[in-house]
Amino acid sequence: MRRLYGMMAEFRSPDALLAAARAAGAAGYRDIEAYAPFPVEGLAEAVGFRRNRVPLATLAGAVAGAAGGYFMQWYAAVVSFPINVGGRPLHSWPMFIPVAFELAILCGALAAVVSMLAANGLPRLTHPVFDAPGFGLASRDRFFLCLPLRGRPADDWESRDVAAFLRGLEPAAVCEVPR
């Protein structure tokens, strides 16, 4: 039995792609993938784009970095090696703020990059849609809608049903995407 990633339809205009994505969502398809050479207004909502946790991970990284930087300086100045310089208190918090701020920025940025890569499923060196006929035009002037058959062998009836649905959307072409 052949293994398919999904079925893909090619459209010639962004309006046709947007209408097809909305029809696929209304028909109950999930994990809809759309590919366009430029941003299409409303396409993210049509394919069911969900908010991710990158901002939360960035905040957590920044708070952890600031707390870690502040704790590191406090421990060094108060517990590990207390030195009274010029009569200042051992826990002189204004002196600890610049390093805590810099570590908040650094750790927040690192957490943002790592969580963005994880949310996008990267690094991925190849994707099955790259092998679809004509998909190279997705970066120039064509618009593609892919309906994945997630994790199951493509039964002939299932791929025929999806192909018939896609043909009903009047695309320029419909093709199978091999796994």
Describe it.
The protein has helices spanning 14-26, 43-46, 54-80, 93-119, 156-167, and strands at residues 4-11, 33-35, 143-148, 173-178. The chain contains 5 helices and 4 strands. The protein is an alpha+beta fold and 179 residues long. The mean pLDDT is 90. Helix 3 packs antiparallel against helix 4. The protein folds into 2 domains: 4-51 and 127-178, no CATH class; 54-119, no CATH class. A 4-stranded antiparallel sheet has the order 2-3-1-4, with helices on one face.
Largest sheet: 4 strands, antiparallel
Terminal residue distance:
12 Å
Relative strand content: 5-15%
Number of strands: 4
Look at the helices and sheets and give the structural class: alpha+beta
Radius of gyration (CA) equals: 26 Å
Q: Would you identify the regions where 5 or more consecutive residues have pLDDT less than 50?
A: none
Tally of individual helices: 5
The helix content, as a percent range, equals: 40-55%
Shape: rod-shaped
Mean pLDDT: 90
* Overall number of structural domains: 2
Can you list the strand order of the major beta sheet? 2-3-1-4
Any descriptors?
179 residues, alpha+beta, four-stranded antiparallel β-sheet, 13% strand, rod-shaped
